[in-house]
């Protein structure tokens, strides 16, 4: 699966986000810093989503399976 990083030049440096992943956004003084910050933002969004899902599940019986997405 492909994700699209979008970077916009602003007076303070750059802002960046991932089109396919709401909430994954960041900023940085340089494009390189913004790219690195965006990777961290992606990890934090995915971690937060997992915590929210676990809270929603609570003590319910569920089945978990690993899902791999083929590279597009």
Automatic annotation (TrEMBL):
- Would you tell me the protein name for this molecule? Putative RNase H-like HicB family nuclease
- Source species, domain of life: Bacteria
Q: Which InterPro entries match?
A: TTHA1013/TTHA0281-like (IPR035069)
């Amino acid at each position: 699966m492909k994700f699209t990083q979008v970077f916009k030049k602003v007076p303070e440096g750059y802002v960046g986000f991932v089109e396919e992943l709401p909430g994954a956004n960041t900023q940085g003084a340089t494009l390189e810093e913004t790219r690195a910050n965006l990777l961290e933002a992606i990890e934090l969004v995915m971690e937060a989503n997992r915590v929210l899902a676990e809270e929603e599940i609570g003590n319910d019986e569920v089945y978990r399976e690993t899902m791999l997405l083929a590279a597009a």
